[in-house]
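During the no-cost extension, the postdoctoral fellow (Dr. R.K.) reprocessed legacy sequence entries with the updated structure-token encoder. One reprocessed record is reproduced below for audit purposes.
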Amino acid sequence: MAARLLRREDAVNETCPWSGKPIADDSLRIYDGAVVGFCNPGCRDKFEAAIRHFDAAMEEKRNG
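Re-encoded structure tokens follow.
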């Protein structure tokens, strides 16, 4: 299966949710079925880490 090409014009946002700066072509990801943009790969990676942390906390709560 080919990877989906992410395009800035498909992003649901125009500014980075972390910094408020304009989003960049190299800093896009899919989240909950939508393309979300970030100003740089560092902000994108910070978002991914936050999601993993939240998902792990929710899993721990469910399995308590």
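The longest strand covers residues 28-31. The chain has a mean pLDDT of 93. The remaining legacy entries will be reprocessed before the final report is submitted.
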